[in-house]
Amino acid sequence: MCRRSLAIREKALGPDNPDTASSLNSLAALLETKGDYVGAEPVLRRALAIREKHWGRHQTPRQPEQSGGAAEDQGDYEGAEPLLRRALAIREKTLGPTTQTPPPA
Question: What domains are there in the chain, each with its CATH number?
Fold first, then answer.
């Protein structure tokens, strides 16, 4: 159903519409739930590209965070780090830096 929803949105709204990115996120979430991190990563990266094109590179922290998480799940720490750092920078710009020390693990 996720693939069908994506196809409908791509046809009706175009491949670069933010609603198409939402369908991509749904498909990626399903793939991750099934353990298909390799399949989910390019889907998340495509959604990220759409959102960045629509809202700007520094306006969408959630998407780089998801893409970074997918890369991390595959053991691609070098690929994950810049995405996760970008998400953190966006959140800090929006919310301000944290001044609390996290609890020990």
Answer: 2-95 (1.25.40.10)
Q: What is the pLDDT of residues 11-27, one digit of tens each?
A: 999 999 988 988 998 99
For 15-34, b where at least 16 C-beta lie within 10 A, e where not — what string?
Answer: eeeeebbbbbbbbbebbbee
CA angle 21, 26, 30 (to 5 degrees): 145
Nearest partner of 63 among 18, 30, 97, judged by Cα: 18
The Cα angle at residue 97 between residues 93 and 98, in degrees rounded to 5? 145
Amino acid at 67: S
Total-model pTM: 0.63
The residue written with tokens 């495509």 in the block is 46
pLDDT digits (tens, 9 = 90+) for 57-104: 666 666 667 777 777 777 888 887 887 887 788 777 766 776 565 566
- List, in order, residues 6 or more apart from 46 with CB less than 8 Å away: 21, 24
